[in-house]
Amino acid sequence: MHYENTLAFAHDLDQQDQLRHYRDQFLFPQHQGKAVLYFCGNSLGLQPKSVRPALLAELDQWETHGVEGHFRGELPWMHYHKYLTQQSARLVGALPHEVVVMNTLTVNLHLMMVSFYRPTRERYKIVMEAGAFPSDQYAMESQVRWHGFDPADAIVEVAPHATPPRPSPKREGDVEGAALLGEGSPKEELEVSNHILQTNDILEAIEREGDKVALVIFGGVNYYTGQFYDLPAIAAAAHRVGAYAGFDLAHAAGNLPLHLHDWDADFAVWCSYKYLNAGPGGPSGAFVHERHGSNPDLPRFAGWWGHDEKDRFKMRKGFKPMPGAEGWQLSNAQIFSFAAHKAGLDIFDAAGMEALREKSLKLTGYLEFILDEVNRGKNRFQIITPRDPQARGCQISVLTDEHGKALYDFLSENGVVADWREPNVIRLAPVPLYNSFEDIWRLGQLLL
User: Fold this and answer.
1) Domains of the chain by range and CATH?
2) Strand arrangement of the beta sheet that strand 284-288 belongs to
3) Are 248 and 269 in contact (CB under 8 A)?
């Protein structure tokens, strides 16, 4: 697409946008009497207007029925997690019995590792991305130590290195010949390659460690750079060496189309407070491939809500897991946070992930264009997110110069909500449900 740095062009794109009416379904924080330019959906999504009535309905349910609210009313609490199943399955490309909403993200990550990281003296290593979000790093370290291994030996971190990028295996939908870093001087490409992790390097690391690998676990999208990893290739490589493959989709769920069942992942976890707009501390989703969900002997931490619901209230000893991902549940649903999550999922289901992805590609393409325009000849910052649209989601990360924090503070003082990550990156995430092309143009005007 040919982009233009004009308000008229941005307005024209907004008028063509078939999803533009969804913006009116969200509440924007205000700055000097106007809606902020909100580019922080990769950290906390905006509040859907439907959340308040959803929460009030559950308060009414509690007031009217008390404990009997578990069995009465329009959405009895006893089965509330099931009301999120179909939508969650469509969101991540899974069969309904492969997903469950429960707990919070890192809790679910640990629960999955109980089942899928069972090291032996010979097969004990975890392969993961270097620079993963700290929760993942801490989870890996603690799990490894729990089993008596040294993280320095047992955790293999795959890091970018300062060499010009090599072509990665082509994925469906990739543009023929597209380079991850786009056009730029050799020096610029070399600098940006310090942040981009090549798929070939990931696959080679897995192959090199071979039968020592117990688990390969990657984020779907790197929180810092916004890079979308080649998850099906990673899963296949893990399985070739006899390891499990798991993914933390905190920055991928609701951001990109996912196909976890077809990609043959063993498990995945994600949160709901970022792109899924479930509110701070929103519940987590979990995926367990059906080949594991149908195996009641697979070790796991057990809880009452994961026990076979037909016998749950008989209160007997002897854990008998529910089939599918529901067998990993520990406790009954946190109703108020689940209600907020359902309100967000209803919007996602109506919009459709494919349509959202189509708009997202245009939004990030326009943001990339605007950033390049305002930075031309100034070199105040550098885009470290892959230039290949297929290798990124909603987020564009900007590596700043020594004045980066001052630039971020200036944007904040002028009504832009973005995200600063140490040591010197500003993350910008135009979300297709509620961001407009005019938002991006106005951001560019502030950056001039």
Assistant:
1) 7-35+353-447 (3.90.1150.10), 77-351 (3.40.640.10)
2) 99-102, 284-288, 267-270, 244-248, 213-219, 125-129, 155-158
3) yes
Rounded distance between C-alpha atoms, residue 436 and residue 328, angstroms: 40
CA distances from 353 to 258, 274, 340 (A): 9, 15, 19
Q: At 218, phi and psi to the nearest 5?
A: -130, 150
Band the pLDDT of 194: cuts 50, 70, 90: confident
Contact indicator for 368, 387 with CB cutoff of 8 Å = yes
- Beta carbons within 10 angstroms of residue 355's beta carbon: 13
Structure tokens at 409: 């503070």
Sort strands 155-158 and 125-129 into parallel, antiparallel or unpaired.
parallel
- Give the closest residue to 81 by CA, choosing from 299, 353, 331, 288: 331
Question: What does 27-86 look like in DSSP terms, one character per residue?
Answer: EPPEETTEE-EE-BTTTSPPEETTHHHHHHHHHHHHHHHGGGGGTSSSS-GGGGGGGGHH
pLDDT tens-digit series, residues 16-59: 999 999 999 999 999 999 999 999 999 999 999 999 999 999 99
Query: What is the per-residue pLDDT across 161-175, written as a single tens digit (0 to 9) for each?
Result: 755 444 444 443 333
What is the maximal distance between C-alpha atoms in the chain?
A: 72
CA distance to 44, 56, 115, 293, 319, per residue, from 99 (Å): 23, 27, 16, 10, 20
C-beta of residue 408 within 8 angstroms of C-beta of residue 420? yes
**Phi, psi for 26 (deg, rounded to 5):** -125, 155
Residue-wise pLDDT for 399-408, tens only, equals 999 999 999 9
